[in-house]
TrEMBL record:
It comes from Chryseobacterium taichungense. One of its GO terms (molecular function) is protein histidine kinase activity. Residues 649-747 form the Histidine kinase/HSP90-like ATPase domain. This is histidine kinase. It comes from the Bacteria.
C-alpha cells in the first residue's frame, strides 16, 4: 500500500539506499598497473645492482598477487618471488627492502585466506617500519590494516583512524601518488559514514595531487564523487561525475575491473533521475563484469542492488530471479550478505503471497536474529513483513518493540520512520484503526524530518563558501539592531504601544490555538464515528457472506438430492424394461448423473464452495463404478492422482469424461470375463496445465477405427466434453487403449490482484 506521494518517495528512497542498497562503496578495486612480466624478468636478470634487483622482484611479486582472478599458480609465483627478494634483502641488510617484503608476505597470506597469520605478519611489519624509521612503509602497513576491518560502522571508523595516520607519513616521504590514493580511500570511508561533504573535500585534494604528477587515471575518484553527490541529493552532479568517470576510463583505455564500479555508479545516478531502464542496463553491465571475474563479494553486492531496485518497482518475481541467478555458483561468504539475501527472499515471497515459500527464509532470519544483532534492520524488517503477510500481525508487536530499541541506540531517523510504517501496517491488519492512523502520522513526521536533514547537509558547502560574507552581514545587522534599540529606548511611547500590541497578538494567538484544539477534537469525533460505521458495515458484510455461503450449500444439496431422485426413477423405470439397449442407456445415464451428483455432494460437505478436490472425487467415482460391475468383471484399478482443485465448470465435464472412459473400458476392453488392469492418472504437468490418462491392457480399438467417423455416443461425448474444457483429446491403441486429455486450468476466478508496496517505500 502506497503511503507517500511520488515526489516524497523519490527523495525518501535515496536516503533509504544508505541502508537497503549497497552503493558499491564497499567494492574495492585494485587497478592493475601496466606491468609487462616478461620485461620485468629481463630487467631482473640484467639489474645493475642487487638493491635494484630487490625492488624489481617485489614489483613482479606484487604484479602476480594483484593479477585479476584468483589463480593458485599466481599466488605461488608471488610467494616465490617475494621469498627471493627477502633473502637478498637480508644479505644486503637492505631495511627498506626487508620492510616491503614483510608487508607483501602479509598480503600474500591474506590472499591465501590465512587471515590470522596475515594480521600477525602485518603487525610485525608495522613494528619493523616504525623501529627503522621507514615512513612510507609504515603508512603502507596502516593502509593494509584496513583490509582486516569490515563495513560496519566501528570497523569503518577504525579504517579512518589508520588512514589519517598514514597520510602525513606519505607526505613526509614525498609519496604523492600514495598520498592521493590514501585521500581517495579516506573519502570513501567518510562517505560510508554519511559525512559526504567532507568526503568531497578530500576527493578534491586527491584530484589536485594526481594532476600535479600528471596522473590521468582519475575514473575511480570521479566515481566516488558521483556517489557522494548522489547521497547529497544532487542528482545532476552525481550523473555528471559518473559520466566523467566513464569518459576518463575510455580515454586512458582502462581494461581493468574498475569498469564494474563505474557502471554501478552510473546505474545509481540514472536511478536518482528516475531513468530506471538506464539504471537496470548499467547494473546488468556491472554484474556481468563481476560474474566474468568471479568476484563473489561484488557479484553479491550488485545482485542485491538489482534485486532491491526490482523490489522498489514492486516486481518481486524479477527480484527473486535476480537472486537465484547467482545463488548457486556465488553463495555469499560474509554474514551480512547472507542476511540481506534472506531478507530479499522473505520479503519478495511474502509480498507475492507465497508464504509457504517465504517460510524457510523467515525461519532462517528468525534463527539468525536469536543468534546476534548483526544486520538487525534486515532481520527485523523481513520477520515483520512475513508475519504481516501470513496473517499473524499480532506477533509483530514484540519485534517492533525490539526495532524501537535498536533505533534508539543507532539514533537514525530512517529507522524511526521505517518502524512507524511497519507499525501502521500491523495495526491496520489487526483492525486497530486509531493506532494505525497515529503511526501513519508519525511516519510522515519522521520522513519530513529526514528530508529537512538532507537539505541541511546540502547547504553545508554553500554556508562554508560564503561564511565570511555572512559574518560581515551579521555585524551590519547587529549595528542596525543597536541603533533601533537606542531609538526604542528614547521613545517610551512607541515601546508602550509595541508592548500593548504584543499582548493583543498573544491573546489572538491563544484564541487561535483554542480554536484549533476545538476543530481537532471535532475532527477526532467525526473520525471515531466513521470508524464505528465502518465496523458496522463490516459486520453486515460478514453476515451477508455467511448467508450467501449457506444458500450455496443448500443449492448444491438440493441439486444432489434431485440427481439422486432421477437416478432412483431411472432405476425404477429399468424394472419395466426388457430391451437390453434401453437398459444399457438407462444404466449409462445413471452413471453420468452419479458422476455429477458426487461433485455437488462434495461442495455441500466442504467449506470451500469454489473448487473440488479431484483426488477425492476420482477415487470415489471409480469406487462407485467398480461396485456396479464387481460381480461381472475381474478388473483391477491403479490410480496415480495429484491433489488438484478445480472449479465446478471444469470438474463436471472432467468427471463425465472419466465416467465414460472407465465404463467403456470395463464393458468392451476385456471380453469373456478376461482379467485386466485399468490405470487412471491425473497430473499437474506445469503451472495450471493438467493431463488425464485412462489406459488399459485390453483388446484396444478395432483395426481401421476412425474417430471422426464413429457413431459411438460415449466417444463423441468425451470429445465434446474435452472441447468444453478447451483441451486436447488423444487416443492411442497400442497393447490396449490409452485416452489422453490435456487441458489448462480455468483461472478467471483467480484474477484478483492486491497491490503492495515494499517497506523500503
Amino acid at each position: 500500500m502506497n503511503l507517500t506521494a511520488p515526489i516524497s518517495v523519490r527523495k525518501f528512497i535515496r536516503i533509504l539506499c544508505l541502508v537497503l542498497l549497497l552503493l558499491l562503496g564497499n567494492i574495492r578495486v585494485t587497478a592493475q598497473s601496466n606491468v609487462d612480466p616478461q620485461q620485468l624478468e629481463k630487467k631482473i636478470a640484467n639489474a645493475a645492482d642487487d638493491h635494484q634487483k630487490v625492488e624489481l622482484l617485489i614489483t613482479l611479486s606484487s604484479y602476480y598477487l594483484n593479477k585479476p582472478g584468483e589463480e593458485k599458480a599466481d599466488i605461488e609465483e608471488a610467494e616465490r618471488l617475494n621469498l627471493q627478494a627477502g633473502k637478498l634483502s637480508t644479505i644486503l641488510k637492505y631495511k627498506t627492502g626487508t620492510g616491503k617484503v614483510m608487508l607483501l608476505s602479509a598480503q600474500i597470506n591474506r590472499e591465501k585466506g590465512e587471515r590470522e597469520k596475515a594480521l600477525k605478519l602485518t603487525n610485525q611489519a608495522l613494528a619493523y617500519a616504525k623501529r627503522n624509521n621507514l615512513p612510507v612503509i609504515t603508512a603502507d602497513t596502516y593502509k593494509e590494516l584496513c583490509a582486516y576491518k569490515g563495513y560496519e560502522r566501528p570497523d569503518i571508523e577504525q579504517k579512518v583512524k589508520y588512514l589519517e595516520l598514514a597520510i602525513p607519513l606519505y607526505r613526509k616521504g614525498r609519496a604523492v601518488k600514495k598520498e592521493a590514493d590514501a585521500l581517495k580511500d579516506l573519502a570513501d570511508y567518510y562517505g560510508l559514514l554519511e559525512q559526504n561533504q567532507k568526503a568531497l573535500g578530500l576527493l578534491e585534494n586527491a584530484v589536485s595531487l594526481y594532476k600535479s604528477i600528471g596522473f590521468k587515471e582519475l575514473q575511480g575518484v570521479y566515481t566516488l564523487m558521483s556517489g557522494n553527490y548522489g547521497l547529497l541529493q544532487n542528482a545532476q552532479l552525481s550523473l555528471q561525475y559518473a559520466l566523467l568517470a566513464e569518459k576518463t576510463a575510455e580515454e586512458v583505455q582502462d581494461q581493468s575491473y574498475q569498469w564494474c564500479t563505474i557502471y554501478n555508479h552510473l546505474g545509481l545516478a540514472y536511478y536518482d533521475l528516475l531513468k530506471f531502464d538506464l539504471a537496470f542496463a548499467n547494473f546488468e553491465k556491472a554484474l556481468n563484469i563481476a560474474l566474468e571475474n568471479k568476484n563473489i563479494g561484488d557479484v553479491n553486492a550488485i545482485t542485491y542492488n538489482l534485486a532491491s531496485l526490482y523490489c522498489h518497482k514492486k516486481n518481486y518475481k524479477a527480484a527473486l530471479r535476480t537472486l537465484k541467478r547467482t545463488e548457486k555458483n556465488f553463495p555469499p561468504t560474509d554474514e551480512i550478505t547472507k542476511i540481506r539475501q534472506l531478507f530479499i527472499f522473505a520479503v519478495s515471497y511474502s509480498m507475492l503471497k507465497e508464504t509457504e515459500k517465504a517460510r524457510p527464509y523467515y525461519e532462517q532470519l528468525l534463527k539468525k536474529y536469536n543468534e546476534s544483532d548483526l544486520g538487525l534492520f534486515y532481520k527485523l524488517t523481513g520477520i515483520i513483513i512475513y508475519l504481516q503477510q501470513s496473517g499473524q500481525p499480532e506477533k509483530t508487536y514484540a519485534y517492533l518493540e525490539k526495532f524501537r530499541k535498536f533505533a534508539e541506540e543507532s539514533n537514525n531517523l530512517v529507522f524511526y520512520s521505517q518502524i512507524e510504517l511497519l507499525a501502521f501496517q500491523s495495526d491496520q491488519a489487526s483492525k486497530k484503526y486509531e493506532s494505525a492512523i497515529k503511526h501513519l502520522k508519525q511516519h510522515q513526521v519522521y520522513k519530513d524530518s529526514i528530508f529537512n536533514l538532507e537539505k541541511l547537509k546540502q547547504s553545508t558547502a554553500l554556508e562554508l563558501q560564503f561564511e565570511t560574507e555572512k559574518k560581515d552581514k551579521n555585524i551590519k545587522l547587529l549595528r542596525q539592531q543597536g541603533k533601533l534599540q537606542e531609538a526604542k529606548i528614547q521613545n517610551e511611547k512607541v515601546i508602550r504601544y509595541v508592548f500593548i500590541g504584543s499582548i493583543i497578538v498573544l491573546i489572538l494567538f491563544a484564541a487561535l490555538l483554542y480554536n484549533r484544539s476545538r476543530l481537532k477534537n471535532r475532527a477526532n469525533k467525526k473520525l471515531e464515528l466513521k470508524r464505528q460505521q465502518i465496523d458496522e458495515q463490516n459486520e453486515q458484510l460478514k453476515k451477508l457472506l455467511s448467508e450467501k455461503e449457506w444458500l450455496l450449500k443448500e443449492i448444491h444439496h438440493r441439486v444432489k438430492n434431485n440427481l439422486q431422485i432421477v437416478i432412483s426413477l431411472l432405476n425404477t423405470q429399468s424394472a419395466y424394461l426388457d430391451n437390453e439397449d434401453a437398459l444399457m442407456a438407462i444404466q449409462n445415464s445413471q452413471h453420468r448423473m452419479h458422476a455429477m451428483s458426487l461433485i455437488h455432494q462434495k461442495l455441500y460437505q466442504s467449506d470451500n464452495l469454489a473448487t473440488i478436490d479431484m483426488s477425492w472425487y476420482i477415487y470415489e467415482l471409480i469406487n462407485y463404478i467398480k461396485e456396479c460391475y464387481s460381480s461381472e468383471k475381474n478388473i483391477s484399478f491403479v490410480m496415480d492422482i495429484d491433489k488438484i482443485f478445480l472449479d465446478v465448470a471444469q470438474a463436471v465435464p472432467l468427471g463425465l469424461i472419466l465416467n465414460e472412459a472407465v465404463n467403456n473400458t470395463i464393458k468392451y476392453a476385456f471380453p469373456e470375463s478376461r482379467k485386466g488392469e485399468v490405470q487412471v492418472s491425473f497430473k499437474n504437468m506445469e503451472k495450471d496445465h493438467y493431463k488425464l490418462i485412462i489406459s488399459d491392457n485390453g483388446i484396444g480399438l478395432p483395426d481401421g477405427f476412425d474417430i471422426d467417423e464413429t457413431e459411438s455416443l460415449g466417444m463423441n461425448l468425451m470429445r465434446g466434453l474435452t472441447d468444453q474444457l478447451d483441451g486436447n483429446f488423444t487416443l492411442e491403441s497400442k497393447n490396449g487403449l490409452k485416452i489422453i486429455i490435456n487441458f489448462r486450468k480455468n483461472t478467471d476466478i483467480d484474477d484478483q490482484h492486491t497491490d503492495f508496496d515494499i517497506v523500503t517505500e
